[in-house]
Please model this.
Amino acid sequence: MEPKAYKISVAIPAEYKDELMDAVNGSMQQIYPGYDRVFSIARTEGTWRSLEGSDPFIGKAGEVSVEEELRIDFAVKAEDLKAVVRAIRSVHPYEEPAIDILPMMMWKDLIDP
Model:
């Protein structure tokens, strides 16, 4: 059975939070009837080492970077997945943003025929 929905988690610098949420919200159908802009936000710390040839938004190639970020989680309908990923990429400042995409089941799928 193909998933009807996905959970997306994306790490982003805090100053891009509203821009990301606006872009995502505008690129998808609402998954929770009667609500929009449904996101969960948590503070997190990202770490990476940019390799030679990269063009990092933060830090320098060859050095380890550690930055405070926000992790924004939300649900998206399967048919909107590509549009949402494009929306994230259009506003995310990182060359290679961390975007996790996990298949999920909606609770209504368990109780509604």
Remarks:
- The longest helix spans residues 81-91.
- Residues 5-111 form a domain with the Alpha-Beta Plaits fold (CATH 3.30.70.120).
- The chain has a mean pLDDT of 92.
- Residues 43 and 88 are 18 Å apart (CA to CA).
